[in-house]
Amino acid sequence: MPRLDSVSISAEAMPNSKQLPPTTIPLLLAKDRQTLDSDASATIDRVETETICLDYDLAIVGGGIIGNTLAVALQNSGLRVVSIESQAQSVSIAKNRAYVLSMLSGQIFEGMGIWNQILPLVTQFSQIQISDADYAGVVKMYPQDLGTETLGYAASHEVLLTALQSKLQTAANITTMCPAQVVGVDYTETGAEITIETPDTATPIKIRASLVIAADGAKSSLRERAGIETTGWNYWQSCITATIKPEKHHQNVAYERFWYAGPIGVLPLADGRCQVVWTVPHQQAEQLQHLPTSEFLQELEHCTGGLLGKLELDSQRWLFPVKLMQSKQYTAPRLALIGDAAHCCHPVAGQGMNLGIRDAAALAEILVAAHQAGEDIGSDSVLQRYTNWRKPENWVILAFTDFLDRMFSNRIFPLVIVRRFGLLLLDRIPVFKYLALRLMTGLAGRIPQVAKSISQ
Question: Among 35, 47, 46, which Cα is nearest to 11's?
Fold first, then answer.
C-alpha cells in the first residue's frame, strides 16, 4: 500500500496484536484498540487516553536523502526499521536544490536497486573544468583520466528523494511515520524510547528501539540532547544558490571556478539548466541575493567568464552560511549520527551529500553484519566500527575542502603563485589528475559492500 502524507505505521509493529502481513496502514487511531485480524487491511481509531507503544530494532530520525538512504540500505535486512520525519513527504520532496553525486554514490544507489530510476534524470559529467579567477590556465579533466565512463553526476533533490521514497513503499520491514515530531528521547542500557507527536494522534506515541539514528541535519536536536559536542568554525563566507538557464548548452561540463572572494560551482542539469553554487563573504552574499535580477546575472556572467553566454534566472536565490563541523563523537550509547548531523564541510567540490550517503551505506553494512552474527546492534562495540570507518575518511574530505577554500579565496601573492603552479602541475601530470579524481569521486576510500560488485 502506498505511503501517505499522514502518519503511517506497520501493523506488525502493533503490540498486543496478531502478526499481520507486512503492510502499511494509515494511523487514524481510536478509542478502542482491538487485536487486529491478520487478513484485514486494518486501521487504528483515535486513542484519547492510552499511549501507543511500538517496538522496532532501529529508529531513524530524519526522512531526507541521507536518512532514507540508510532505510533503503536496510531493506530485507531482517531488522525492523521505523523512519520518522517531521515534514510531510510532499513538503520534503519540494526542495529546489541540486547536488553533485559522486561515482561511488551512484554505485551505492545501483547496489540498492534504485539507480535505474535515477540515472535517466541526472546529468553525467563529460568533463570538469577548474580555473582560478582571471588566470588564463584551465585544468580540464575527462573520464579517461580516471579510466571510467563518467566523472560524476548532477542530480536534483526531487529526483533522489522520489526514488528513495518509492523504494521504501515496497520494503516490508520498514515503516514510515510522517509528519511526526520527536519531542523526547530516553536512553537506557538496552535501548531507547522516543516520544513523538503527530497531527493525527490525541496522545503521544512511544517508539522503543535498540538503536536511534540521528539523520536530522546540521542542527540535530538528537545530537544536542545527547550532549555530543562539535568542533569546527563558521567561515567568513555564505553561499548563494540558484538555477539558471544558459544561452549556450552546458555540454555536460561541470565548472569549478575559484575567485578571490570564494569559489563558484556550476552544475549541468538534465534539462539544460544549471545549478549555481556561489560562495562569497557574508555581506557580499546578502547584496547578491537582493540585487535586481539583471545586475545579479551581469555579475554571474562575469564570474563564469561568459562560458555559458547570456544567463536567465530560473529560481529564487537562496542564501545559507558556510561552516566546517565535525562531531567529537559519531556515537553515544544507543545513538549514531550520520550525514550533516555528524559533519558539515565547505561546498567547494560538492562533497557534503556524498559523505552522508557513504555514512549511510557503511552503517547499514555494519548493522546487518552485527545482526546476522547475533550481536546487539546498539552496543558500543558495534557502533565503534562505524566511527572507525567513517570519521577518519570524513576528516580527509573536511580538510581537503577547507584547504581548497583557504588556498584560493585570497589575493596573497605568494599563495597565488603557488596555487597557479599547482594547477599547472595538475594539468600536465596525469598521475596528479588521477589521484585528485579518485578523492573527488569517493573511490579513494573504503568501498561499502553494497557498491563493491558494481565497482569491480
Answer: 35
pLDDT, one tens digit per residue, over 137-180 is 999 999 999 999 999 999 999 999 999 999 999 999 999 999 99
DSSP 256-291: EEEETTEEEEEEEPTTS-EEEEEEEEHHHHHHHHHS
> Largest Cα–Cα distance of the chain, in whole Å?
76
Which residues sit opposite 248 in a β-bridge? none
Cα 362 to chain center, whole Å? 14
Tens digit of each residue's pLDDT (9 = 90 or more) over 69-86: 999 999 999 999 999 999
The three grid cell numbers given for residue 31, joined into one nine-digit string: 478509542
The Cα–Cα gap between 189 and 305 comes to: 59
Q: How many CA atoms does the CB half-sphere of 5 hold within 13 Å?
A: 7
* Cα 145 from chain centre: 27
Hey, CA dihedral for 200, 206, 210, 213, is it positive or negative?
positive
Of the candidates 165, 73, 168, the residue with the CA atom closest to the CA atom of residue 371? 73
Q: Cα–Cα distance between 337 and 326 in angstroms, integer?
A: 11
